[in-house]
């Protein structure tokens, strides 16, 4: 098995120590950081698939995210800017008035693992900041997260701000978080909603017309 | 016209019957709400959080304005005491947040990996006190003084004829470490150092269960509330769930039953995979209080012959739905769930729940 294939396997199995050792070994063997990162992303995709099949659960997504965070820190100095091929750009954040981030972070990790370039704006993000990020990045997918019902107004305000900025017809909007469902999606004016990270990835792929596995 | 004490007696008896799976005269409605009451009564959330007494008065005024129903889950606001339950800092309106914002947990990794050994070596009590006061800057003494007044706050509701459904709250021990470490770090700990995590949870559990026994005896509580807030099946593999969620839930439930009380298990998120486990709990001594994510019809199918079900009108429906939608959904639930059912909100009614929607629930229970 190649080193990269081993990395994919160990990350998929959520073996942190083995994954990190293999990543460091691969770097020492002059395997390109981009190839190593791709191997990790393939592991994350498999983690997502297992989650979709109900073999893995939220804690497995979190654990894989913790491993990926450490791998990214190791690889970052070795990665060339713009070396990774992007499936598309996504602006993501938890809306104004809401500071919850665990669900958002899981979705961001899975989107990155699926090859998307994600502009993660963090939490408590005002509408204007989302609009600014869309303009700066040229992203045509926007993800809004919120765990409180009070986030619904912020989601609505953000989508209105995107409209007022003349970007609404160019940008597809997905919403998600605890109380979000189809009625919330309709009420705030979003295009679709996701109950979990896999649905977010599926939507992003669909909207960027990437092959949906 | 009935006196408030006759109403209270009738409402308590109705709830007793429903929990014991006896047929009541009508379906009871228990409102789980605190911040909703502040908005209902036009009280700024910063003022609402300023003292238990202000929250208690606001909640009682809200109940009286809503009309004839059995009562509320609690007699004061939960938000300001979240650090005691989740070992996490809470941002409060008028302090870290704008004056009329809802409180929110500000979860960070505050407990370190080394702290596991501290707890093992020195016990939980001293660690928790030090953690709350010195790492979370929580006003522990002032809060404990206010908590000592809770029997009077409960009495205020009872004097008006309303039941306070679950005045006693048991500690869901995994939530303490989950909050203190932060969910991502605690999750990683379960994978990397599971034996140590379990050993620490066992130490904490032992201390908490002894306190729980004394509390039940001192208060003569008939229902004890337990909230394994991030214990849902959807969060964990079956093995992790059994080891780090069910074990502690079952042990706590057993102590509650031994002390002669019933347990109200507050179920957030999706527990469908593991519903069968709950059949091990004694018949007629449990309430499965669901927030609406676990399919209530599946709960009924698996557990309806053994335990009372409470719920599950959800936050989105209460905020965005119409009174007709809420009324119709509530009536359908009452009909489909049958005698062992308490109509309630799915978790705490959000502050922006429409008053008409809560009134629709009151009306649904009153006429069915």
- Overall mean pLDDT of chain B stands at 96
Euclidean distance between termini CA atoms of chain B: 21 Å
Biggest contact: A-B, 29 and 31 residues
How many helical elements of chain A?
A: 9
Helix content of chain A: 40-55%
**CATH topology description of the largest domain in chain A:** Rossmann fold
Strand residue percentage of chain B: 5-15%
CATH topology of chain B: TIM Barrel
Q: Would you tell me the structural class of the helices and strands of chain B?
A: alpha/beta
The CATH architecture of the largest domain in chain A can be named as: 3-Layer(aba) Sandwich
Structure description:
The complex is a heterodimer of chains A (213) and B (368). Chain A folds into two domains: 76 residues, Methyltransferase, Methionine Synthase (B12-binding Domains), Chain A, domain 1; 120 residues, Cobalamin-binding domain (Rossmann fold), CATH 3.40.50. In chain A, helix 2 runs parallel beside helix 4 and helix 3 runs antiparallel to helix 4. A five-stranded parallel β-sheet of chain A has the order 2-1-3-4-5, with helices on both faces. Chain A is 54% helix and 12% strand. Chain B has a single domain, classed as TIM Barrel, CATH 3.20.20. Classes of the chains: A alpha/beta (213), B alpha/beta (368). At the A-B interface, helix 4 and helix 8 of A face helix 11 and helix 15 of B.
Question: TL;DR?
Answer:
The complex is a heterodimer of chains A (213) and B (368). Chain A has 213 residues and is α/β, with parallel strands linked by helices.
What tags apply to this protein structure?
A: 213 residues, alpha/beta, Methyltransferase, Methionine Synthase (B12-binding Domains), Chain A, domain 1, Rossmann fold, 2 domains, 9 helices, 5 strands, globular, B: 368 residues, TIM Barrel, 11 strands
